[in-house]
Specification:
Blueprint: E1 8-9, H1 12-15, H2 19-26, E2 30-35, E3 38-50, E4 78-83, E5 87-93, E6 102-112, H3 114-121, H4 132-135, H5 138-144, H6 149-152, E7 164-168, E8 176-180, E9 191-196
Antiparallel strand pairs: 1-7, 2-3, 2-7, 3-6, 3-9, 4-5, 5-6, 8-9
The structure holds a DNA duplex (13 and 13 nucleotides).
Length: about 220
DNA sequence: ATATCGATTATCT
DNA sequence: GATAATCGATATG
């Protein structure tokens, strides 16, 4: 048997669709990191769709640059960006060559390789209640999977021979919840965040739009 | 429990 | 020069 035991890779055509469709369908799938003698696996429980050049919140809004070129390439490839001077975040490209669009991975439920994830995150687990600290949040999951731009940007996520890829195990999501995206200032109200309802590994305080800054008086 | 803030750098204006 | 698809720490109810 091959290293893809238990998990079936997704075809490139899976990603050759709108970011909305891909985001919804990615819920419940598995992100896999295969190294020489170890495997990390975690279920995708929260993602966001970014719509490309027409979406002011998307990096592709600025056009095809050195940073965003993967978004304008073929579907099914990793777009990794560095943010706030501290964190990497993982997307997968969607649509088709020449048309940008992507899905941001926001939270995972760890399945295999929990100890290695904790080492990569440089944290100690006190108990099961600490598990969300591993992969709940885009920066955290990237660190747990040792994802960096240098290592993974442009990587094919459809091949089980890739050290980072996406597979399926037959899991069927029960209820999917759609909310506004988190952490953006432009186009912040559009419902483009997809989560497995009730999953304990979903990031963030449940999406309450920040209460409008309101002055008691004005003069 | 929620709110605010500093860290730290690639990227774009 | 300002900003950012975040996180973790600290402050406050």
């Amino acid at each position: 048997m091959t290293a893809s035991n238990l998990f079936t890779p997704l075809a490139r055509s899976f990603f050759a669709r709108s970011p909305r469709a891909v985001a919804r369908e990615l819920l419940g799938k598995i992100l896999i990191r295969d190294d020489d003698d170890s495997r990390l696996a975690a279920r995708i429980v929260e993602v966001e769709a970014y719509l490309g050049e027409s979406d002011p919140a998307a990096h592709a809004y600025a056009g095809n640059t050195a940073r965003t070129s993967v978004l304008f390439g073929p579907p099914g490839y990793a777009y990794v960006y560095f943010i706030y001077g501290n964190h990497y975040c993982l997307n997968v490209s969607c649509e088709r060559e020449g048309k940008a669009g992507s899905v941001l991975f926001r939270a995972l439920e760890p399945l295999q390789g929990i100890e290695e994830m904790a080492r990569s995150r440089e944290i100690t687990l006190s108990g099961p209640r600490d598990l969300p600290k591993l992969t709940s949040g885009p920066g955290r999951l990237a660190q747990a999977f040792s994802i960096t731009r240098a290592r993974d940007n442009g990587r094919d996520l459809t091949s089980p021979n890739s050290s980072l890829w996406i597979g399926a195990d037959g899991f069927r999501p029960k209820t999917i919840q759609i909310t506004a995206r988190i952490g953006i200032t432009k186009a912040a109200d559009r419902p483009l965040r997809y989560v497995l309802k009730g999953n304990a590994f979903v990031s963030g305080r449940l999406s309450r739009p920040k209460p409008k800054p309101r002055k008691a008086f004005d003069m």
